[in-house]
């Protein structure tokens, strides 16, 4: 007779943070269950670095923090993601290993995570009261889709080039300059 399969139980946030601190592999926590993260492509990484370089000076000037790829964002009591980039302008929370109130989140799309970024993460991010914009950059098509807070909801805007407003930093992102990192 076969052994019964072990039933996995959801992790608490505290258990997840303890396990993540010891793990050589990063995991996101989705509704209590850890999900291993894949590595990024060169194009993906170059875009993230270009974004950090473009946003960091203004964020620092405004007293905001910029986190890229390796810092956690808690979006629900049982869900934690590692956004490609987030900007947080409020005071830090009590937990030094995660943020909870970003004003801006950016994800660079990749074939392995695009569906999660467009649907699962988008729904979670847009529920954050502090969020003013959620941006998706495509490293292959050189474009950007942005969800911008308007009143109690968000509006979708697409950009193929030009300047993209970043509301919480009171600046614009020059798409041509960002994508020049891929040349």
From TrEMBL:
CDD domains: DUF820-like (cd06260). Residues 14-169 form the Putative restriction endonuclease domain. GO terms for molecular function: endonuclease activity. Keywords: Endonuclease, Hydrolase, Nuclease. InterPro entries: Nuclease_put_TT1808 (IPR012296), Restrct_endonuc-II-like (IPR011335), Uma2 (IPR008538). SUPFAM superfamilies: Restriction endonuclease-like. PANTHER family: GLR1098 PROTEIN (PTHR36558), RESTRICTION ENDONUCLEASE DOMAIN-CONTAINING PROTEIN-RELATED (PTHR36558:SF1). This is Uma2 family endonuclease.
């Amino acid at each position: 007779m076969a052994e019964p399969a072990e039933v996995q139980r959801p992790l608490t946030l505290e258990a997840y943070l303890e396990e993540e601190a010891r793990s050589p592999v990063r995991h996101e926590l989705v509704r209590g269950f850890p999900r291993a993260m894949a590595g990024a492509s060169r194009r993906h990484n170059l875009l993230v670095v270009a974004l950090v370089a473009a946003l960091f000076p203004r964020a620092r000037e405004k007293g905001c923090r910029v986190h890229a790829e390796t810092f956690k964002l808690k979006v629900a009591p049982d869900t934690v993601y590692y956004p490609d980039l987030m900007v947080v302008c409020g005071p830090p929370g009590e937990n030094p290993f995660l943020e909870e109130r970003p004003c801006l989140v950016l994800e660079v799309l990749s074939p392995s995570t695009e569906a999660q970024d467009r649907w699962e993460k988008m729904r979670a991010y847009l529920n954050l009261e502090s969020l003013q914009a959620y941006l998706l950059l495509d490293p292959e098509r050189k474009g950007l889709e942005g969800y911008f807070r308007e009143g109690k909801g968000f509006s979708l805007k697409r950009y193929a080039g030009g300047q993209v407003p970043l509301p919480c930093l009171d600046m614009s992102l020059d798409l041509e300059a960002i994508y020049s990192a891929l040349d």
